[in-house]
Amino acid sequence: MKQQVIRLLLSGFLVLLAAGHALAQFDAAGTVTNEEGEPLIGVTVAVKGTNIGTTTDADGRFRVSVPGTSATLVFSYVGFSTVERPVTAASNQVDVMMTASSSVLEEVIVSGLATTVKRSNAANAVAQLDAKQLTGIVPPSTFDGAMQGKFPGVQITQNSGAPGGGINIRMRGITSINSATQPLFIIDGVYVDNSIIPPGLNVVSQAAARGSPRQFDQDNAVNRIADLDAGDFQSVEILKGPSAAAIYGARAAGGVVIVNTKRGSNWADAPQVRFSQSLGFQQILNPLGMRQWDTQKVADFYGSGSPEIQKFLDAQAAGKLYDYEMELYGNKGLISDSRLSVMGGNEKTAFYASGSHRSEEGIVLNTGYTKTALRLNIDHRLSQMIDLKLSSNYIRSSADRGYFNNDNTGTTMSIALSSTPPWAELHPLPDGSYPNNPYAPSNFLQTRDLITNNETVDRIIMGGTATVKIINTDVQSLRLQLQGGFDSYTLITRAIFPRELQFQKDGNGTNGASIQGSTPSFNNNQSAMLVHTYYTPKLTFRTQGGLTRESFSRNTIIITATQLIGSQTNVNQAGSISTFQFRSEQLDLGGFIQEEVNWDDKVIATLGVRADKSSNNSDPNELFWYPKASLALNLTRFTDNLGPFSTLKPRIAYGESSNFPPPNALFTNLSGVIIDGLAGSLVNNQRGNPDILPERQKELEVGVDMGFLDDRMVLEITNYRKVSEDLIFTAAVPPSSGYTSKIVNGGTLVNRGWEITLSADVMRTEDFNWFSSISWWRNRSEITELKVPAFVTSAFGATLGTFYIDTNRSATQIVGIGNPDDIQPGDLYVVYGDFEPDFQMSFYEDFRYKNWSLTFLLHWKKGGENINLTQLLTDLGGTSHDYDDITLDPAGVLGNGPYRISQLGVSAAPFVEDASYFRVREIGLFYTWTAAQMGKWSNNLVKSAQVGVSARNLLNFFTYNSYDPEVSNFTGNGLASGVEVNPYPSSKSFLVSLNVTF
Amino acid sequence: MKSQLKNIFLSAAWLLAVSALYPSCTIDEQVDLNAPSVDGIEANATVSELNNLVAGILSGQRNDLDIYLDDHGIIGRDFYRFSSADPRFTADIPGAGSAFLDNNTFYITRPWAACYQVIRNAWVLRHAVVNTSAPLTDEQRKGYLGFAKTIQALQMIWLSNLTHNNPDGCIRVDVEDPDNLGPLVTYDEALNYIAALLDEAYGDLNAAGSSFLFPLSTGFSSFNTPATFAQFNRALRARVAAYQQDWNGVLTSLSGSFINPAGSLTTGAYVSFSTASGDRPNSMYISLPNLPTNARVAVNSWVTDAEPGDLRLSKVAMRTEPAVSGPFSSNYDVAIWSSLDDDIAIIRNEELILLSAEAKIQLGDHMGGVADLNIIRSAAGLPAYSGSMDHESLINEMLKQRRYSLFGEGHRWVDMRRYNRLDQIQTDNPDEDVWPYFPIPASEG
């Protein structure tokens, strides 16, 4: 019986296979050229409605066997408009000229875990950048920096100016209040870790409460994604919300960033050797200046009989009033960026190899960043049926980040600076020792010169893909794609505070501290996917299904040695040692199935579902389901009479994804403590919740893509509504329970927004080209349901301004104490602002005139407030640059400094500030010599050469009263942005670059 | 064709097999990789785990004790706290200008949470002691319980000292079940509960045999047996009785305490600090001279109001130049503690003698009260009391001796409040406030 069934199934299959073999067939052939008549190599030529296709050879020629007596050939090539041509057995010679196009609708974007779709058929607004837009203007320091301002709907905020990066990414608003919803990064199919692993400076800074679970949030550590070398990236795609990312399931809540790196080729210009060298410097972006003191001001601040008056006069007479801001932040840091890449291959094998080295000095002496990266990508065709792809990447990076940000000991360089007047003498004495700073617990020049705060990473990322064409007939194909990869790194953090520091010696500290951390992290993922495509003349069906496995493990050990012996930094050489360990292990298993139906490029519909289970859930074997569905209509395919539209595509997409509970959310545990040598257990402040559910995001996206003038101008309009349910809060609980917070599923958050992009090939002539892409986006959030009492979070309490989670309010509103008349009925606090910008806008403009190119990216953030505590701390130290200006006091009496101090404890209004900015984020001017021009000088060795100048953050316009409105004292949760406490100031950089291709 | 078919068939079979196997791949239940869990300990703890909880309680008492003492020191105007890192020490707590106490700021939220965290740990210990299957004798069990309850009572004394007669309520006393907390009770109700809890603990300690099964920190080295720990319990009970104005109760409790008129005034129970590995240094200690950006400086009047020759003035150190922060200035650094390893007193003989004096004066035994006060005066290098013997004068004298004897240890504000004399606390500037109590932390709801 069983055998019969199998036989029956088998014969059904056979019929299916045989159906593809039409009786009549003919050969079509021809040549493909560009507008200049030069042959195009590697153009895809497909017979529409079938699985038949080929590519053009080195002379641009093709030959393809066409079933039946007539058909349509589709010619597509990256950077050119797609062309369709009819062929018949009678007229089977087709010569095609393709025209270059920058139209975004020609891009190919992901549509499933193993498939892609041309943007003109996509139902989602997926943002994509190519290498030129990503790294082509200014060679970026870190990958995170390369993305800023370039993706509509994405808010990327730098945490500080410290070398080595550190950012917060929000896609379509905040997705979670307490969890770190950073996007999932997938590079060549490998899930790449983006942890933030702090070095444990809290023992010196005391920035957070002792024993607080958030004690590491203020260490200003780097996101590990910063390690990656963006110079190797071919394209970056961002799936901003669940409607596009549902197929990534349980990890996709924060969006997905998909990176494809450069690969070799066996036809175009190969082999190709490319060398790039950039040199430049960076400097402080917005120095604030120092307060201009006079005798009266000294007397007012220090008291009329104070000896400070005489000290001030003496220093003034001796010309020894120092501009300490510029002494600390005034370094012009050298930047050098070198890169060599080789690509090439033959018919079977292609490779891309690159090596790069970057070093940069910070704007503070003894801070800086170096990175060395190697990459080897190999593609190999094992047989007609099997393709192999291997990607491998080694990175070593080292960041010296200094000692900045909030503290409770007054010892960070920036906080010590805030209370140091210009007549202080902090410079080293002739014997090399440093005088104590009488105005602060730390002599920041000594701190700068003697401390170490280094993060060093050794990282290997490798991935491989095998694609097996199991069936490949005229009408159908079945592909098996096996993928696997791992991301393994060891992070070594090393913070050394020698015992001769002012705040370590003489009982002021712990006689030195050596804080040594080590974190091995190993992630790996595997997947097996089957993609079946079935062609009929009008309909194409693509079915895919697969299984995925991801595992993650991390083990952080931090050893803190204090009471150091002499100048030793080895943790053995210390009188007191404490240790900290944090481990996490996670295993996720998932599966998915998806069906795409394409009716003649007129209607494209997708339906899919993913199921995931994870060891992070309370029941690790419970399956969570994530459905998705989408529909796109190409109206211009139905009729040619759509007026000005060359494309008119309404689209709609829905999807769900989720966000795991944070590690250890399930448990209430006890921390280890020591008293008098007795080991103790003390309950943690945070209660776990054994019934915790993952957060779930549901997003509906609707939009329309409009092309005009043969798609030379494209307008994309997208509206979305993203609902985050079962939000996980570390909700405040009555502390009389013995706990201060509990992990709960406590609310619902809705984000709504608009994204509009207008991109156009404005001019395209022989000598002059102008491509422009203008994006505008905004997001609004609202807490629609809250099962826990409204609570303050992610700042320093209502006195100084804080985020406040309350029903029917924006999730990012900023409130504080203040005039009772300003408090809305039923509220506790005055609402002073919202971190969410009113809108953001970016302008990417690319001009080419003959051999010149000018490219720039402008970024405008309108509105959105920060909590600026730098100015308050500087006021309290009496050193604010605007201390004596009278612009804030409504009575017009008090200087800004005294006024802000007078409001301390009365109103948080002066500390919440508009953080709008307009900046020229990137600008580059380049001159290129083509092969023809170079030929005579270089014996045809050089194919092209390019020189240019570029700058990052060249011009910045903001009224915000600090170094940069883009700042964050905290890292690690959804709301962690926009709170400023004496950060490492941001910088602007200038580079001269030379690129040569051989 | 045939081989292709075979390929298809093989692949399909392979995939089917994998798919079939896949759901049967189960993921193991997650265990906490980083720490023991409360549930596990409460259900069945080993003796060493019980002793870990005891050490956790002792250690937890140190959390934010510095903020508790700063709250008292600043509002009672023993000292001011200057901190460039946190302006609220010189704004909200002394009520400078129009600043006021917020209900969601560290000065109340942190000590409040820290005390209740210790109370919670003690509840975990109480539950664990009852549930454990470890072979404990009844006496040993009683030892743990007497310890846990006494420390819970101490934490509630600290808590109620902060919120006192706040009209929203003083503290929660019924906190055994974290999901089902009792109401905020009034100050008087809180004191009654604390007194009863101390008495219950006293009963346990009296039935706890001759030794504890657990070690205590060095700060309790005089109280590390059930009998001696009971003396510590009675000392706290005497303090509570004084707060309740139960003067006979004060004397009764003192008689069971470690009061010793002939002994060292510093004998008592302490919270231990140490710079040893993993331990906690004394965060009330700041090396001399204090920097104005990080200072704990005595209110000048504390020095100028003192009788000449008072040895207790050694608790401050004269500065070479005044420390100034905004409208505040002082010529004296607080020097009660001399190193990061110094312990901080919970209750000591000096306070007990002063409590004895106070109770006797209140009960009309003026001679007895003066005799006690003279022990204190003599130790401070002062002549015997020679002022008038009326009740009012003696109360003034008693409060003055407490001001100097217990400087910086968290008493002045409480004492002046007990005698409705907050308006007599001298401030540096006219626009300062002397708050009567702290707000209940916002998250108490």
Tally of alpha and pi helices of chain A: 14
The CATH topology name of chain A reads Maltoporin, Chain A
Order of helices and strands of chain B: HHHHEHHEEHHHEEHEEEHHHH
Helicity range of chain B: 40-55%
Strand portion of chain A, in percent?
A: over 45%
Annotated CATH architecture of the largest domain in chain B: Alpha Horseshoe
How far apart are the termini of chain B?
76 Å
What would CATH call the class of the largest domain in chain B? Mainly Alpha
Q: Radius of gyration of chain B, rounded?
A: 27 Å
Radius of gyration from the alpha-carbon trace of chain A, in angstroms: 30 Å
Determine the mean pLDDT of chain A: 85
How would you portray this structure in words?
The complex is a heterodimer of chains A (998) and B (445). Chain A has 998 residues and is mainly beta. Chain A has one domain: TonB-dependent receptor, beta-barrel domain (Maltoporin, Chain A). Chain A has 14 helices and 51 strands. In chain A, helix 12 crosses helix 13. The longest helix of chain A is centred in the N-terminal third of the chain and has 18 residues. Chain A is globular. About 2% of the residues of chain A have low confidence. Chain B has 445 residues and is mainly alpha-helical. Chain B folds into two domains: 334 residues, Serine Threonine Protein Phosphatase 5, Tetratricopeptide repeat, CATH 1.25.40.390; 41 residues, no CATH class. Chain B is 46% helix and 9% strand. Chain B is built from 14 helices and eight strands. In chain B, the strands form four sheets. A two-stranded antiparallel ribbon of chain B has the order 1-5. In chain B, strands 2-3 form a two-stranded antiparallel ribbon. In chain B, strand 6 and strand 7 form a beta hairpin. In chain B, helix 3 runs antiparallel to helix 5, helix 5 packs antiparallel against helix 6 and helix 8 crosses helix 11. Chain B starts with a helix and ends in a 27-residue tail after the last helix. The model of chain B has no long low-confidence stretch (mean pLDDT 91). Chains A and B meet through helix 1, strand 22, strand 25, strand 26 and strand 30 of A and helix 1, helix 2, helix 3, helix 5 and strand 2 of B.
